[in-house]
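WARN no homologs supplied; continuing
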Amino acid sequence: MIQVKNLSKSFREQSVLKNITIDFYPRNVNFIIGRSGQGKSVLTKCMVGLFEPDAGELNYAGVNFLSMSEDERRALRQQMGMLFQGAALFDSMTVEENILFPLNMFTNLSKKEKLNLVNSCLERVNLKDKNHLYPSELSGGMKKRTGIARAIVMNPKYLFVDEPNSGLDPETSLVIDKLIRELTYELGTTTVVVSHDMNSVMEIGDRINFIHNGMVEWQGNSNELIHSENKNLENFVFASDFMQEIRDNLRNKHQG
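OK structure emitted
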């Protein structure tokens, strides 16, 4: 479990995060949603140690990340898997080499053990025998699945995913959503997803956290989201006619 308590972060005179408190649960797909520029990415960068908060706590299994030594932080980061927007693969490396990268950096496993882990992860993401392809030879969905394989190869306790469906067609987005959900439950990870994709939120979101003006304005599950009367949340989620239709249909279904 990850507990964010009273977290604040400013850049010069601009306050970006204001007293954020959120619990992120294991074996849950925990979404952070909100308009661009509301602090979602800053929050996740604080959680993985890329930014240092000005105040608050970041508790991983009850231990405050902000009070850890550099060695303790490094050890905890080895329990984190990260899928960045665009997959962030190394263009000069093959699929296999990309997935090997964290194993080479953080483990003393034999070459055979590392390759076994790589191949196991490739099977999980349905990329068996794609080891020697380069990123330029992959579709957008295959790049994302390669990024997921790299993120899970260390068997992480915590999985951070930034805009997993950005640039993907609807069908491929469903594949990525299903994969994230399955891996979360199978591996028992605490999964944190930053997304603007409301279809994903409604499809796989166990817990949803809405950030507005640097503050947590609403928290709940997808069913509670449908019935929420928070105007800022409603304006964000149901801005399109398509999403309004989904909301109305679901409300009618529950009322019926």
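The mean pLDDT is 90.
OK
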